[in-house]
Amino acid sequence: MGKLIKYELRKQRTSRMVIFIALAVALVCFWAGIAFNSGGLAGISIAAMMLGAVFVLFYTGIEGILVFNRDLRTKQSYMLWMLPRSIWEILGAKFISAILQMLIVFGVSCAAVAVSTAGAVLTIGGLSEFLEMIRTMSKSFVQGGLDWGDLISMAFLMFLVWTLVIMTGFLAVILARTVLIKSRFVGLLAVLLFFVIDFAVARVYDLMCMIPFVEAANRVEALGWSVWDVIYYVIVCLALFGVSGVLAEKKLSV
After folding, report:
1. In this structure, how many other beta carbons lie within 10 angstroms of the beta carbon of residue 23?
2. Between the CA of residue 50 and those of 14, 24, 27, 125, what are the distances in Å?
3. What is the dihedral of CA 81, 82, 84, 87, to 10 degrees?
4. Which is the most buried residue in 42, 62, 94, 178, by most CB within 10 A?
5. Mean per-residue pLDDT for 160-166?
6. CA-based torsion, 221, 223, 225, 230: positive or negative
7. CA angle, corner 29, sides to 26 and 31, nearest 5?
8. What are phi and psi of 112, to 5 degrees?
9. For the segment 181-224, what is each residue's pLDDT rounded down to a tens digit?
10. Which of 190, 194, 212 lies closest to 202, judged by CA?
11. d(CA 252, CA 91)
12. Please, are residues 130 and 202 in contact by the beta-carbon 8 Å criterion?
């Protein structure tokens, strides 16, 4: 599967390079602002990096769906089904590469913001001010009622929900390509199917929350989530992956 993942990641190499070049420009501008005492330039640069980190998180995930749709439209992915690999391994590589692309770009962007902020504090205020910043942030963190467990849980839940979005998009594309494979309206149908699937998942979740013990569990959780929410979304992700695999095997294999 490793070779398949590398192959899929190469398809989004151009977008990664564009994002990293833009990030490098922002870093140069930031440190130029620090070097020439231009607070405005430094502030705009760090703000751009922070907003960019959020933007690329969403963009790269959506791009994975768009690349999959393009592959099916241009028949590129059809050739993959001819490899001596199982459909599940091929489709799994596509899912994993889409998620990895998102995590790689988002992680690099966040690291750039963190290093720039720490470096600026050290450059301007020295080590003592840097340590004071860490102490203040830690104090605010504790007083806000959060701990590392909450942050890890929040990050995991965000990852799970975004994984659900990617899997929903993949299933919508496969459904559209198997129903209207030669139509010019396949893209529109895929978008509509995405929202239909998302609506169905949300409605089933609402019904689940009406179960007394599930509703009680939701109320007592600090983050508004419970183990039932995690179980539900994991099951939904697995179900979407399973349906996508069955359709790919029956409709897209050559």
Report:
1. 21
2. 21, 13, 12, 22
3. 10
4. 94
5. 86
6. negative
7. 110
8. -65, -40
9. 666 777 788 889 999 999 999 999 888 888 877 766 655 455 56
10. 194
11. 11
12. no
Name every residue whose Cβ is closer than 8 Å to that of residue 93 and which is 6 or more positions away in sequence. 1, 4, 5, 7, 8
* CA–CA dist 222, 193 (Å, integer): 34
Tokens 């998302």 belong to residue? 198
Tokens of 234: 């994991």
Q: Give the DSSP per-residue string, 1-30.
A: -HHHHHHHHHHTHHHHHHHHHHHHHHHHHH
Count of residues making up the chain: 254
What single letter denotes the amino acid at residue 35?
A
Distances (CA, A) of 253 to 92, 183, 194, 232, 249: 15, 19, 23, 30, 5
- One-letter amino acid for residue 1 of the chain: M
- Please state, for a pLDDT cut of 90, what percent of the chain lies above it: 9
Residue with tokens 């590469």: 97
pTM above 0.90, yes or no: no
